[in-house]
């Protein structure tokens, strides 16, 4: 609960799913990434630069900006294509991008991952009958995505909680330092097909155990 | 593309990311790792633990307490088994002689059976093994829980020490309000909650009490099946820990419960669309849980017996009288609890009310029993006297068989009898006692007032305040009764439950889904008969019963003076405070306090209810006489409720203190003055908070709340009576209609008028409401009394879904209205349901008053 959650909803055609998702995820990640930190002595650091790249979509009249990091792009693309494959040609799905930070805990417990911001993108896939409709859809989706991007920027511009800048030892708890050229906040991409929102058995069991243990 | 010839050339110099000159400018200093307390994942649990640790007086106390509990448990089980199986009682009772030749004395180890015999005996006894296994499992469960808790609370301990800057040794002496103030303080620095810059007190309360608030609201709206009409026993309440556990399991956290996690209701339950489906699902889940309960019944039963045995035998042994003592029942705790009231606040309130409450119950000793007890005590006493006299003469009498035991038995017999003999010096004044009780417990169905001396009232009060023995007995039969209640009663209510959770859940940013009643919003849940007339927009379905919203609001505002309520709420609070203040000060004014006719409400609070009629319905000389007589009692009543009020006199900070000596001529004046003092001091507490510690503040707060509660109840009574004669049609279907009985009626011998159904939580059957002569509501005459009654019963039926209906006409209204869904969220998608959307049938009833005429 102790995290912000933002929901974006888009309605697209099946072939547009991948690009639309990439556009939104990359837009968010662009604002949630920073250059690599170079720690110096006396506990200070300097931040490296991040390049940006304009990407034109093939199936949508839309251009978005992403971090010019091939590695990051590869990771995102992989997640999105998995989502796209799982999504049937005419159905609902939700992909969420969750930013979290790790909290070290003592021995018997594993490290906690505590999310602080979750972006859920709900996708509604439609089938279109003819080329003319597709053409209209192409423009419409482009406009919609533009709105969403503005939306994202508005949310990000609010002065809200962000994890504090870490010291060198903690940097792995806040940022994803596995990439060479860019350093986004720790994130996780998950997806869900259809909106069966029932809690899974495992979470229920975990809660049951936790509750019996609780005072 | 890459081969254009341009002037632009790649710089050969080796450069890092930032230009050489700026390296020093672009240095950053990391700020992390200063605190580990920012952004806590599960704030609900976190705050609960912070609260628990505070209540348990710090980490060490908690640790030691838990360790000893574990050891104790082990000891009790082991010792019981040992006593049952490994002792040769024949040797102890000297029925069998030990073949010791060297010494004539029997030693204790002689009575022990050898280990192999002992273990063989245990192994043969299946029941003992069963008990041992269950207690073993229980103990292991406790052990694991203990270890888990130690780990969790260690973290909380370091939170207290590092973030809140409180050591464990000073924790027992810090009030919760102080701890809370620090939490609010450090939120600014650490951002425990990431949604808001600042936490409010209400946020913390909401998180700690999220589910409890739901339970309170459900009891308030009579949603939970805890009242039963049993043949022979009359109406009774059955609400045990086991039942409560099951309710919570079903609603809040069990598998497939309505809540997704601690803080959010599942989204499908927020939509009204498929409520019937969801209700079916819930019903079948309740059925399954009921069946599981039924299957596990023997295990739980043994568990309960063991538990009761372990927890109570020691107490009973130590003081046998404690079984006769009473305690606040579980239902009472739910019924009397304010929204957003923490455990310790409730407990301190109820503990203060304990003495007057037990006094009140003692007023009702059965005269028949008294006669019997007196005589039994006489005979037993004479036997005892003879035996004791003989013993004193020659102590060899003691060695005669069973003399010692008969002395003990006779002693116990006399003690028991004595408890049935009323105190010679006790005065029968239930009305005033009830008033003092009300000052502490803050809630009371309206029909109790003026009927305090009646047995029905006593019986109903005993539902809140039951014998401890009954409490234990109920706990013991609970495993058998719980599945029956779940399967047959709760299952029927599944639709209402679904509707309740949908209509009364709001999502608050930074808190999650909470019960909307707990927002204490007068506009949405106020009851027009409880001072929020004109401010409230709630339909009857949305109104909290018994003025719960208003009283809770006052309670919360008084206990948390720093809390900044929303605009309208502030207005309400300040208005009420001002009114109480005005009434109080006008009372201390020497001129207005003419003894014959006290004008102010505070004076009435002290004097008793009977004078109220004299104020608003013209001075009745006989009643004012009564008032003068009762004033001293009332004064002592208030004194007992606020022992600090006299000390407040001494503070000399208020001019009232100077005036007080001048008024000591009459008791009531002085007490009224001191009452004012207490109140003004405490209401000025926000100004003083720098000087006063919060402990002192909270003491004042409880007195202030008592006075406000009394005032509100009094005003409620007047208001609802006055309102009736003013607008006869508008509010007839609200349940204040039963208030239409003015006080004069109460003095009439008609028994029907006495227990008129007043509140949803205390529905009583009224054999024939048409028999009520309503002299005050002369405008509408007798018919109105009927309307009020029948429409009231209809509203009660609709929402509490009680199966009994004594009004067939009312029942018809219900059935026509019942089909309409109360889907607040379904239609408009608003978080806060508006009453027109929610309850279309309400307006239709409002618009057509003659409609009810036809029915009656």
From TrEMBL, chain A:
One GO location term (cellular component): phagophore assembly site
Cellular location(s): Preautophagosomal structure
InterPro entries: ATG101
GO biological process, one term: autophagosome assembly
UniProt key word Nucleotidyltransferase: no
Pfam family, one: ATG101
UniProtKB keywords: Autophagy
GO molecular function list: protein kinase binding
PANTHER family in the record: AUTOPHAGY-RELATED PROTEIN 101
Family statement: Belongs to the ATG101 family.
Protein name listed in UniProt: Autophagy-related protein 101
Automatic annotation (TrEMBL), chain B:
One GO CC term on file: phagophore assembly site membrane
InterPro entries according to UniProt: Autophagy-rel_prot_9
Record field: compositional bias (Basic and acidic residues): 723-734
Stretches that traverse the bilayer: 59-84, 122-140, 286-310, 364-390, 402-421
GO biological process: autophagy of mitochondrion; lipid transport; piecemeal microautophagy of the nucleus; protein localization to phagophore assembly site; reticulophagy
Composition bias, Low complexity: 763-802
Residue ranges of the region described as Disordered: 654-685, 722-856
Keyword Mitochondrion: yes
Pfam families: ATG9
Membrane topology field: Multi-pass membrane protein
Subcellular location field: Cytoplasmic vesicle, Autophagosome membrane; Endoplasmic reticulum membrane; Golgi apparatus, trans-Golgi network membrane; Late endosome membrane
Entry keyword set: Acetylation, Autophagy, Cytoplasmic vesicle, Endoplasmic reticulum, Endosome, Glycoprotein, Golgi apparatus, Lipid transport, Membrane, Mitochondrion, Phosphoprotein, Transmembrane, Transmembrane helix, Transport, Ubl conjugation
Keyword Cell membrane carried by entry: no
Catalytic activity: a 1,2-diacyl-sn-glycero-3-phosphoethanolamine(in) = a 1,2-diacyl-sn-glycero-3-phosphoethanolamine(out); a 1,2-diacyl-sn-glycero-3-phospho-L-serine(in) = a 1,2-diacyl-sn-glycero-3-phospho-L-serine(out); a 1,2-diacyl-sn-glycero-3-phosphocholine(in) = a 1,2-diacyl-sn-glycero-3-phosphocholine(out)
Record family assignment: Belongs to the ATG9 family.
Function: Phospholipid scramblase involved in autophagy by mediating autophagosomal membrane expansion. Cycles between the preautophagosomal structure/phagophore assembly site (PAS) and the cytoplasmic vesicle pool and supplies membrane for the growing autophagosome. Lipid scramblase activity plays a key role in preautophagosomal structure/phagophore assembly by distributing the phospholipids that arrive through ATG2 (ATG2A or ATG2B) from the cytoplasmic to the luminal leaflet of the bilayer, thereby driving autophagosomal membrane expansion.
Stated name of the protein: Autophagy-related protein 9
The organism of origin for this protein: Cyclopterus lumpus
């Amino acid at each position: 609960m102790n995290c912000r959650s933002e929901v974006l909803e888009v309605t697209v055609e099946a072939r547009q799913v991948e690009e639309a998702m990439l556009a939104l995820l990359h837009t968010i990640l662009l604002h949630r990434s920073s250059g690599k930190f170079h720690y110096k002595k006396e506990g200070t650091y300097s931040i490296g630069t991040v390049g940006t790249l304009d990407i034109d979509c093939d199936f949508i009249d839309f251009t978005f900006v992403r971090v010019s990091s091939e590695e990051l792009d590869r990771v995102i693309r992989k997640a999105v294509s998995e989502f796209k494959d799982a999504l049937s040609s005419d159905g609902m799905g939700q992909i969420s991008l969750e930013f979290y930070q790790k909290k070290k805990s003592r021995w018997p417990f594993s490290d906690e991952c505590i999310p602080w911001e979750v972006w859920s993108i709900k996708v509604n896939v439609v089938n279109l009958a003819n080329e003319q409709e597709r053409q209209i859809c192409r423009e419409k989706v482009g406009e919609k995505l533009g709105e969403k991007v503005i939306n994202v920027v508005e949310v990000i511009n609010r002065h809200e909680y962000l994890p504090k800048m870490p010291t060198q030892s903690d940097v792995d708890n806040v940022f994803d330092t596995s990439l060479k050229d860019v350093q986004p906040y720790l994130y996780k991409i998950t997806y869900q097909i259809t909106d069966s929102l029932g809690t899974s058995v495992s979470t229920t069991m975990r809660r049951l155990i936790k509750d019996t243990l609780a005072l | 593309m890459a081969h254009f010839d341009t002037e632009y050339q790649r710089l050969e110099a080796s450069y890092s990311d930032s230009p050489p000159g700026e390296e020093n400018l672009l240095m950053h200093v990391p700020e992390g790792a200063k605190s580990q307390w920012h952004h806590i994942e599960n704030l609900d649990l976190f705050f609960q633990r912070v609260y628990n640790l505070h209540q348990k007086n710090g980490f060490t106390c908690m640790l030691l307490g838990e360790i000893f509990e574990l050891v104790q448990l082990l000891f009790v089980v082991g010792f019981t088994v040992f006593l049952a199986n490994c002792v040769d009682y024949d040797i102890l009772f000297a029925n069998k002689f030990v073949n010791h030749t060297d010494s004539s004395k029997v030693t204790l180890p002689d009575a022990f059976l050898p280990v192999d015999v002992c273990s063989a005996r245990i192994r043969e006894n299946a029941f003992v093994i069963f008990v041992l296994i269950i207690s073993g499992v229980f103990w292991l469960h406790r052990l694991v829980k203990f270890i888990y808790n130690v780990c969790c609370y260690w973290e909380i301990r370091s939170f207290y020490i590092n973030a809140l800057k409180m050591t464990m040794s000073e924790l027992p002496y810090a009030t919760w309000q102080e701890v809370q103030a620090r939490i609010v303080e450090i939120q600014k620095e650490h951002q425990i909650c990431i949604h808001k810059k600042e936490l409010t007190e209400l946020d913390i309360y909401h998180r700690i009490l999220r589910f409890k608030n739901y339970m309170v609201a459900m009891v308030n709206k009579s949603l939970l099946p805890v009242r039963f009409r049993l043949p022979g026993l009359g109406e009774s309440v059955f609400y045990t820990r086991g039942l409560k556990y099951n309710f919570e399991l079903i609603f809040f956290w069990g598998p497939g419960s309505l809540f997704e996690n601690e803080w959010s209701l599942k989204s499908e339950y927020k939509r009204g669309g498929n409520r019937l489906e969801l209700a079916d699902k819930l019903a079948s889940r309740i059925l399954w849980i009921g069946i599981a309960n039924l299957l596990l019944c023997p295990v739980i039963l043994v568990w309960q017996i063991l538990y009761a045995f372990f927890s109570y035998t020691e107490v009973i042994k130590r003081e046998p009288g404690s079984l006769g003592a009473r305690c606040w029942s579980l239902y009472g705790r739910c019924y009397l609890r304010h929204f957003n009231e923490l455990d310790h606040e409730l407990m301190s309130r109820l503990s203060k009310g304990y003495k007057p409450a037990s006094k009140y119950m003692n007023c009702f000793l059965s005269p028949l029993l008294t006669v019997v007890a007196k005589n039994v005590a006489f005979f037993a006493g004479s036997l005892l006297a003879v035996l004791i006299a003989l013993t004193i003469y020659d102590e060899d009498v003691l060695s005669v068989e069973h003399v010692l035991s008969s002395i003990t038995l006779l002693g116990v017999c006399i003690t028991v009898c004595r408890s049935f003999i009323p105190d010679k010096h006790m005065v029968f004044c239930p009305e005033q006692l009830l008033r003092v009780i009300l000052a502490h417990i803050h809630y009371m169905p309206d029909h109790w007032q003026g009927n305090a001396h009646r047995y029905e009232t006593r019986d109903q009060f005993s539902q809140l305040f039951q014998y401890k023995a009954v409490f234990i007995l109920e706990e013991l039969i609970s495993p058998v009764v719980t599945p029956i209640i779940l399967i047959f009663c709760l299952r029927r209510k599944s639709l209402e439950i679904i509707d309740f959770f949908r209509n009364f859940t709001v999502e608050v940013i930074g808190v999650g889904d909470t019960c909307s009643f707990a927002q204490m919003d007068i506009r949405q849940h106020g009851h027009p008969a409880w001072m929020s007339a004109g401010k409230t927009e709630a339909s009857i379905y949305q109104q909290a019963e018994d003025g719960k919203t208003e009283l809770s609001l006052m309670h919360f505002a008084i206990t948390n003076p720093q809390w900044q309520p929303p605009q309208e709420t502030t207005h309400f609070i300040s208005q009420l405070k001002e009114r109480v203040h005005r009434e109080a000060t006008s009372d201390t004014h020497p001129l207005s306090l003419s003894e014959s006719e006290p004008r102010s409400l505070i004076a009435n609070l002290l004097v008793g209810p009977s004078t109220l009629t004299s104020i608003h319905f013209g001075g009745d000389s006989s009643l004012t006489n009564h008032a003068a007589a009762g004033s001293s009692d009332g004064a002592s009543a208030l004194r007992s409720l606020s022992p600090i009020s006299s000390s407040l006199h001494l503070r000399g900070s208020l001019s009232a203190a100077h005036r007080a000596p001048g008024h000591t001529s009459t008791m009531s004046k002085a007490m009224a003055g001191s009452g004012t003092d207490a109140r003004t001091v405490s209401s000025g507490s926000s100004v003083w908070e720098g000087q006063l510690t919060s402990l002192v503040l909270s003491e004042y707060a409880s007195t202030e709340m008592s006075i406000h509660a009394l005032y509100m109840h009094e005003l409620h009574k007047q208001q609802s009576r006055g309102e009736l004669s003013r607008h006869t049609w508008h509010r007839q279907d609200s349940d204040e209609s039963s208030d239409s009985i003015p006080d004069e009626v109460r003095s009439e011998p008609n028994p029907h008028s006495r227990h008129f159904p007043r509140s949803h939580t205390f529905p009583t059957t009224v054999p024939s409401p048409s028999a009520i002569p309503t002299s005050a509501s002369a405008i509408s005459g007798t018919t109105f009394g009927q309307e009020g009654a029948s429409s009231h019963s209809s509203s009660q039926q609709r929402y509490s879904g009680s199966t009994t209906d004594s009004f067939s006409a009312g029942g018809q209204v219900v059935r026509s209205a019942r089909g309409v869904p109360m889907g607040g969220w379904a239609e408009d998608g608003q978080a806060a349901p508006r009453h027109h959307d929610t309850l279309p049938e309400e307006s239709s009833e409002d618009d057509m008053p003659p409609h009810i005429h036809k029915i009656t």
